Structure formats: C-alpha cells, structure tokens
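forwarding from the other thread:

> can someone predict this with 5'-O-[(L-methionyl)-sulphamoyl]adenosine?

sure thing
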Amino acid sequence: MKNKFYITTPIYYVNDQPHIGHAYTTVIADVLARYYRQKLGDDNVYFLTGTDEHGVKVAESAAKQKITPQKFTDNISQQFKDAWQKLDIKYNDFIRTTEDRHQKIVVNILNQLKQTKTPQGNDVLYEADYQGLYCVGCEKFITEAELVDGQCPDHKRKPEKLVEKNWFFRLGDFLPAIKKAIEADQLIIYPPGRKKEVLGLINKQNMPDFSISRPVKSVAWGIDLPWDKEQKVYVWVDALSNYITALGYPDKELYQKFWPADIQLLALDILKFHALYWPAILMVLDIPLPKGLYIHGFFKINGQKMSKSLGNVVSPNDLVKQYGSEVTKYLILSQFSFGSESDIKINDFPAKYNADLVNGLGNLINRLTNMIEQYLDGDIGLTKKDLEKSLNISKFLSNINQEIEELNFKLALLKIWNIISTVNEEIDKNKPWELAKNNDQQKLKKLLQDWTKYLYNIAVSLQPFMPQTAEHILKILTAKQIKKPVKPLFPRIN
Ligand code: MSP
C-alpha cells in the first residue's frame, strides 16, 4: 500500500515566459497532488516544480537586455511563480538551479560520477573532443538529418559548428540495465507507446554518450566542474538532479521520505533525457529509479510548435484574466486526453465555457439552490453527516477517482459533466415547480434532497480540479440555510 506520493514537473527554462504548455504539465501535477493530499493526507504528498536557469541561451538573453544572468533568471523565475499563483497551483517546493542548495548537491553528485566505475569497470566520465552542430535554441547538439533547409526546424536558425573538449558520460554501459528496468516496468514509461519508443531507441545500438560539461568559453553561465575549472556543467546533470536536490539528497528527511518519485511528468521533447540519462545517473548514485515517467502530448498552435521565436505563445495569465483560474484549468484539461498530441483551439473556449460552466454546472447550482430557498425556506433537511453518507452515490466517486489515478483527466471531467447533465435533465423531467404548485411537498422534498446529494458528490469530485468552486458549493450545501448565490458562479460571456 503506498502511503506517500511524490510528483514532479520538469523545471522550465527561463529563456521562455510561462506558456500554456508549461501550464498544462503544472496543472496536471496540481490535480494529482490535490487528489493524493485528500487520499493520503497533506504531509504525505510532495509536489515539486521549478526553473532551469543555466545555459548559453540565458546568458545570451541577459546580455541582450544588458543585465546579469542572475538578474535575468530572477525575473523570469518570478514570472513562473506568479503564473502558478494566478492559476492557484499549490506546489510544496519551487526549486531554482541557481540556488545554493541545488548547486552544492550537484557538485557532490558530479564528484560521485567522477569516482565511480560503470558495471563494465570503465570510468563513468571521460574527456574527449566533441564535434557537431549545435542549436542554441534547443540548447543541444543536432544532427544533419534533423535539419530542414539547413536550419533547426523548431527555431528556424542555423546551428553552429562546434569542436570542443567535453567531459562525457558513458551511457552505453548502463543501457542494458536501463532496458531491463523499463521492460519489467520497474521504471514505468506511460503511455505504452512511449515505452516502446524508448526501448526502440535503446535497441538501435549506437546510442551516443552524452556531454556533462562544456568549455567555459562556450558556456559561461553554469556550475563549475569541480575538478576542471576550464569546464562548466552542461545542462542535463544540473537539471535532472533537481528532483533529488530539492529533497536534500542524500541525507535529509524529505529525501528519505519521498524518493523515489511516484510520478515524473514531462512531454515527449525531453523523454530521452528522462528515460536514459536520468536512470543512468541514478544507477551511478546507487539509488532507486523513479517509479514512473508519464509523458503527455505536445500542444501545437495551428500545427506549429509553440515558441517565443515563432511568436505564437499562449500565456496562461491571459486565460486566467479572462476565465479565472478554475475555469482555465477546466478548459485546458477537458480539451485533450493525457498523452495525445493536439492542436490547441483557444477559439472554442468561450462556447465550451458557456455550455459546460454556465449552462451546465452553474445552472444546476442556481436552479437547485433557488428551489430549495423558494420551496423549503432553504432547509433541505439533510445534515452534513447525511451528505457525507451519500458520498460515492452510485459508485460515482470511485469511478472518478479511478480515472484520476489513471491520468484520464478528460474522461474524469466528462463523467462529472455527464452527471451534471443528468441531474439537469431530471429536474426538467420531474418539473418540481408543478409539484410545488400542487402541494406535493413530500415528493418535492425527496427529489430536491436527491439532487442535493448529487451536487454534493459533484463538488467533492471537483476538488482536485476546481478547488475553489468545490469549496464554494460545499459551503452553500452545508450552510444552515441554503441560498441561491447572489452572484452566479459562472457569469455568461458573449
Ligand atoms: N529545462 C528543461 C527540462 C529540465 S527537467 C530536468 C526543459 N524546459 S522547458 O521549459 O522546455 O519545458 C519543457 C516541458 O514543458 C515539456 O516537457 C512539457 O512538460 C512542457 N511543455 C512545453 N511546451 C509544451 C507544449 N507545447 N505542449 C505541452 N507541454 C509543453 O525542457
């Protein structure tokens, strides 16, 4: 029986402002964290997010703005925090790779890598020349085959030719063990299609070793390699380590309690790093692998990848301004199934809002509370205990919970909204206003009580997704006197 839950998002690059892609991952993490807090208690859940603040691109952008890289990262990191606050994201910790607490532990990790041998008895790290094409936009080397018209297809810029000394991580020696762990689902990679892809990558032999450091002259903004002052740590060891440095690896209580992570969320763009590099690093450190990597789909905007360089970025702040945090989360999560690729259709949001929130949930709350106020003087005759006893009415909640645990958020919301529609239809069908006119009090009260129980269940099921809405509904239903909300929860937009 699992009694703790540790969930992480990738730490986001600070060369981009927070956009709806980052928001999607973070919202999912928030939903799961809230769900497991209910199930396991607040103390047994840990939700980590943060920002990845080193690298060439950060130094470049800072220089352009004529500020120090630190100042630059302070600004953008704060923008991520602000965006998450506006979205009502309740994380336990926000790690920044420029923080001392992170860098100190990364240095320890590097020293361990340096001292350790691979299962085949080779040094894990070795020095060599690297030559290749490097895309500053991606912060990674790119192959000829990946280029379109001589340019990186994502950043529409020509890669640079590089020959330089790097320290390399001997990845190949770890692949057999990684393969075994993935095949046995000791390291779950979900959905199964992604697992297949990773195994395919491993089987393709010739998976190159990866650089863990680059010369200072190429990457001025980064952590010093402890044994070679001419080199700076290159992104992935620095970035991936955040998942354990934030917990205080190796000896802090948080680390002891929460590692290994239960769910590490990410999108396809960084699957290779998480499914191959990360396990290899953990194997050197001789600590458990995460239980699972959960890969969600990548949004496109009109068929193109969203990026600052392409100028098609959708900001979560704008959505929150228009719809509020609760509805924004609903709209984002109800659009896509976890794991599927998708084009975001922001233009559909107003219609969806009016249909689901205004006419669906909002209407149910208004008419039900209105009838209880009108016909029963606000006294539904159900205590809080009665309502609690009604929980999981017709297995409704356990059904939703199962969907959440399987990361089927769209389906979970669909099921909740099916119940909302059903209750709304029941009200239309039973015409309680006629029962009131005919003085059929008994039947009227029984029906209103049944619907109240359903609304109570709906609110509880919504807690992980729309916590404020859920709380609001629960407050209305458990008040001494049930009253129709003075202001509708979801005003219509045109
Ligand atoms: N800094 C690295 C990650 C290091 S983790 C140890 C990085 N940062 S990133 O800012 O590019 O974030 C990538 C992640 O943001 C994706 O894996 C995904 O979680 C989220 N998304 C960014 N753009 C996205 C979309 N267009 N669609 C969906 N999610 C996207 O990579």
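The radius of gyration is 26 Å. thats all i got for now
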